[in-house]
Amino acid sequence: MRVIAGRARGRPIACPKGRSTRPTSDRVRESLFAIIGQRVQGSRVLDLFAGCGSLGIEALSRGADMCVLVDCDRRACRVITHNLQTLGLEKQALVVCTDAVGSIRQTRGGVSENAPYDLVFADPPYALGIAESLLLHIDNPQLLAGDGVFVVEHSSRADWPARFGRLEQARQERYGDSKISFYQFVAEG
């Protein structure tokens, strides 16, 4: 696994050993960042279920101002911290080792203190089936900026809702067994 573009382009990203982490492939990451394009530059990013941190690190490499990376696995958090230090990105990042859904429910702490976010990435374990819970808490203007984008990677067999509260699916792409859904707040009026 490597950083695809930006100042850390071509540099390797370590991943935790074992099957508990399923990193987003280079191909899917490249497509995802091609879709969100210039939104990354100067953005505030939240990477939920960060794994090895590949999405957050890619965003930082491409010019995001800061990124909070959340994962509940202590080994994954150590690997993320190592990756950030190796790539010289640690000053722009905060690693929060806790439950991702729980972290966005809290009104205090590392996740809420750095909100609102311009980009929120989520790559939850497919078997969790947490679409509704995750969307419920992302549908919060204190967490996601009004013009922000929530990007979720999920199983191609799972259909995430086209609209949930004030969030509307703006786009969806399929990559083999995975889909990426892009959500934004519905314009009022």
Please report the total strand number as a whole number. 8
| pLDDT < 50 stretches | none
Query: What is the helix fraction of residues, given as a range?
Result: 25-40%
Q: How do the strands of the widest beta sheet line up side by side?
A: 3-2-1-4-5-8-7-6
Q: Figure out the total of helices.
A: 6
The CATH topology annotation reads as: Rossmann fold
How many domains comprise the coordinates?
A: 1
Describe the largest sheet: 8 strands, mixed
- The first-to-last residue Cα distance is 44 Å
Structural category: alpha/beta
Radius of gyration: 15 Å
Q: Shape, please?
A: globular
Mean pLDDT: 88
The CATH architecture comes to 3-Layer(aba) Sandwich
CATH first level: Alpha Beta
Order of helices and strands: HEHEHEHHEHEEEE
In what range is the share of β-strand residues? 25-35%
